[in-house]
Write a structure and sequence with these properties.
About 70% of the residues lie in helices and about 0% in strands. By secondary structure, the protein is mainly α. Strands 1-2 form a two-stranded antiparallel ribbon. Helix 8 (about 140-160) packs antiparallel against helix 15, helix 11 runs antiparallel to helix 12 and helix 14 packs antiparallel against helix 15.
């Protein structure tokens, strides 16, 4: 009875915090959101008003390093249905991030065998806090929110079902993987890191001695979707032009310094007030986590070892992502700093 009561109290606290953060976000949207295009929002005006003669080319054209046809299409469709109300994109941003936070709470609960921890309140606080203002209340930022949400979906499924034996899990994660290259460089970077696991598990499951026809079909789906996603990387770079405004990294030292700042940004925009302090905390979390994962691989067998291997892969995924961001923005950060919108990209590191 005591354990049940404690879990119920934890659930009330965590979901109460989620609700408070969602309500706060919508209150800010109602009070401060404006139906006025901001910056890249203006790119949507021509197709919205029927003045874009080459819609497919517009969908595929670069914005900085990003080809973002999927979020562009979603935003344009949403604007069409709302008579051009740019606040609709803000609502979509908040709902998407709120969904991710809710899913994270449920995944954490499942990993504990159906128990909620007070610590799970971290998810809505980290994702829906107001340092994420540009990602929540700038319509165009759905182009960055969507690949982040798709990444979370893949991570959640792989953590819960690392063996990829359930057809629904494979389809959802695989389709999300295929969608990533259509969501800009943020998504593209993660495909070559995630895809090998889908292929590996597909072969392992498909050629298992007790594998049945249904499992073999699931394995083929896993492999096929991963291969499609990898092929889309090549398609992405057809006609690609490197942005001229972004200076190259001055060197390895600048890249590593930018990587460290990006990792510290997982604690929010407050990190900029004391980089050294938050960098120390970040590495104080990441290094022990890496050691625990390695020990889990050594000590466990079967399903738990597969889960530990998956966690090692995720460490590699986010490490690779951090290095890519560090290398790509090392030339800008010393003079311009990190844009606040990068906070959302760094949160998955925790």
């Amino acid at each position: 009875m005591f354990i049940f009561s404690r879990d119920r109290n934890a659930q009330l606290f965590v979901w109460g915090m989620w609700l408070v953060m969602v309500i706060a976000a919508f209150m800010c949207l109602v009070n401060y959101g404006r139906n006025i295009p901001i910056a890249e929002d203006w790119f949507l005006v021509k197709p919205l008003t029927g003045n874009e003669p080459h819609l497919l080319s517009w969908l595929w054209q670069q914005n900085n390093e990003h080809r973002i046809p999927l979020p562009r299409l979603i935003l344009l469709t949403l604007l069409k249905f709302t008579n051009g109300d740019f606040r609709s994109g803000m609502v979509l941003n908040v709902l998407t991030v709120a969904f991710v936070a809710a899913a994270a709470i449920q995944v954490a609960r499942s990993l504990r065998g159906g128990k909620t921890s007070y610590a799970d309140a971290f998810f809505p606080i980290a994702l829906l806090n107001l340092s994420n203002w540009p990602n929540l209340f700038w319509s165009w930022q759905f182009t960055q929110v969507l690949p982040t949400a798709l990444t979370y979906i893949i991570v959640f499924i792989l953590v819960l079902q690392p063996t990829l034996t359930l057809p629904l899990a494979v389809v959802i994660a695989g389709v999300s993987l295929v969608a990533l290259p259509f969501c800009g460089a943020n998504g593209l970077l993660l495909v070559p890191v995630f895809a090998p696991w889908f292929i590996y598990r597909g072969f392992v499951n498909g050629y298992a001695t007790d594998s049945q026809d249904k499992q073999r079909r699931t394995s083929m789906i896993s492999i096929s979707l991963a291969v499609i996603a990898l092929c889309l990387i090549g398609v992405y770079f057809i006609g690609y032009q490197r942005p001229t405004w972004n200076p190259p990294s001055p060197g390895l030292g600048a890249t590593l310094q930018t990587v460290a700042k990006f990792l510290a940004y997982s604690f929010g925009a407050v990190s900029a007030y004391s980089w050294s302090f938050f960098i120390s905390i970040a590495f104080g979390i990441f290094i022990p986590t890496f050691v625990i994962v390695i020990l889990g691989i050594i000590r466990h067998q079967g399903f738990e070892r597969q889960r530990a291997l998956m966690m090692l892969l995720l460490c590699g995924v986010f490490g690779f992502y951090s290095l890519a961001v560090g290398h790509g923005r090392a030339g800008l950060v010393p003079s311009q700093g990190f844009p606040i919108r990068y906070v959302m990209f760094a949160v998955p590191m925790l």
